[in-house]
Amino acid sequence: MKSTLPPNYNSLAQALVSLFGNNIAISETDRLSGGDINKAYALHLNNGKHIFMKANAKQNAAFFTAEAAGLSAIAATGAIGTPEILCTGTDDGEDVGYSFLLLKYIDSEKKRADYWETLARNLAAMHSAKTSIFFDDETGKGHFGFFQNNFIGARAQSNTPNENWISFFREQRLAPQFKDADSYFTAGDRAKITKLLDNLEDFLVEPEKPSLLHGDLWAGNVMCGPDGNAMLIDPACYVGHAEADLAMTELFGGFPSEFYEAYKEARPLQPGYENRRDLYNLYQLLNHLNLFGSTYLGPVLSIVDEYVGA
Known about the structure:
By secondary structure, this protein is of the alpha+beta class. It contains 9 helices and 12 strands.
């Protein structure tokens, strides 16, 4: 998988020359809205092309190499669209250093009539794709995790492989988030959390086969491409249970009903998904608790009580 990652450059100028030739120059830069972690720009070039750039502090270059790895992984399934990655890099700059990710600029068009149904079928195909290529050894043993760590929002996300999905979800997802949020919890809360983690096998199931997950699949990370079909952006990829992606789509408002109907037709769910959905979303809510504070404490404790009792 690593061999498919994009080139990395030591300056923006070097990247542009390598991509577009010696006479290339930026003729105009437009700051774009959206995103609370990185700055976004449209770079207009003197050859008439324009490209999309995300930028952050130089020490945060790992944000972009991880994002590129995730986009590359999704693209490798051949199932669903993502923006074309041009490169990653760092630049010392005139005043301060920065890191960057260059992507092909996407001119969004009107959504096709079957936009949500097509997204559902394409996502189901991604979830059904071979996953052994996303591990260094490519043994095909059904690993859960990823060949490198990445980020969920602005927080680090560990992807150490595990042969067991429930163990992976306990050790690499819930336990680290609970640990980082410990100051919010009472002694009684901690007892319930321990009971939940110790008994995850009572609530979750192993998947019929592992799936590549987007990892942060809410409506803000889906955009309409130039062909009217949905594209996935800003991934937090890893191999896991497809239910975790589907649960995330329901967390912040949900997708239209036709999406879920088409997904279930293309890739039927294991029985009892509705009973597991909130437990998968507990990871996302814990991450929000750690990122944004006590507004998310109530929803977190409500889900803990849902599974182990008030």
